[in-house]
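Predict structure. Chain length: 64.
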Amino acid sequence: MKIAEVGDIIEFKDGLHGVVEKVNDNSVIVDLTIMANFHDLDMEEKTVVNHKRYKIVKFKNDFK
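Prediction complete.
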C-alpha cells in the first residue's frame, strides 16, 4: 500500500475527496474544501483518515 504524501488528493468514505495536509504514523490529515459540494455536506473543513481507509486519486507530482 502506498502512503499518501502532503499535496496528494485522496478518496475515502464512498467518494469524499481531500488534499493531504499532514502525514502521521497511522493516518493523514485532509482538507476537504476542494470538493465542489463541500458547503452542501455540512462537514468540518479537515478530517483524519487512517492509511488503510483511502486511495490516492492524484499525486502531487501530477499537478506539474
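Summary: The chain has a mean pLDDT of 94.
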